[in-house]
Amino acid sequence: MPFPWKTCVVCGEEFELRPDKPGYANRCLECTEQDTAAAQKQSMDATERQSLNEMNEARRSAIRNMLYRKES
After folding, report:
1. Which is it for strands 14-16 and 5-7: parallel, antiparallel or unpaired?
2. Alpha-carbon distance 40 to 34, whole Å?
3. Each residue's pLDDT tens digit, 36-61
4. Is 17 left (phi over 0), alpha (psi -120 to 50) or beta?
5. SS (H, E, C) 23-64
6. Residue 8 burial class via C-beta count within 10 angstroms: exposed 0-12, middle 13-18, buried 19 and up
7. What pLDDT, in 10s, does the model give residues 2-32?
8. 51: left (phi over 0), alpha (psi -120 to 50) or beta
9. How wide is the angle at C-alpha 11 spanned by C-alphas 22 and 16, nearest 5°?
10. Taking the model in full, what pTM does it have?
């Protein structure tokens, strides 16, 4: 049984949808590879990591205060 042909939503090129194809079902292999390459994790410097840690700690403490606050 032949595999269905789909049209890529990014570039408009037709491609054969195979079950072992990585990525999205509505994007061709080239567009999927470009998308994953752009989404690679970027390295952060020390000040960015510190600010991210402080922001996460403030978020956790705010949630903790909202959850465990005694209603009197």
Report:
1. antiparallel
2. 10
3. 776 666 777 899 999 999 999 999 99
4. beta
5. CCCCCCHHHHHHHHHHCCCCCCCHHHHHHHHHHHHHHHHHHH
6. middle
7. 888 999 998 999 999 888 877 788 888 888 8
8. alpha
9. 45
10. 0.46
